[in-house]
Design brief:
single chain, 101 residues, mainly alpha, 77% helix
Amino acid sequence: MKKLLLSTALLNMTDALLTVAGIRMGEIEEANPVMAWAYAIDPLFFLTVKFVLTAATIILIPVLHYPLRRSIAGMVIVAFTGYVFVHGIHLAWIGLWFGVW
């Protein structure tokens, strides 16, 4: 579960960077209303929020009690799966942008 938490945190950060790039290039929009609000305030604020969430997750990994409760473990799995899906979307627009497909 620790590796899944770390992977989810890192996917969150790469999602942030790819999202900012995609928005600036006019290829995508932020689909999460809360993160769209953060981006509308300032892209740096958006990145800061995403970075703080990533850092908090990484800091908490060693102090959490394992195995995690089923509900928390389920949320981690859902978040990881969601980020994998979102990265697939990022790969799609990047491929279109570079004319790969």
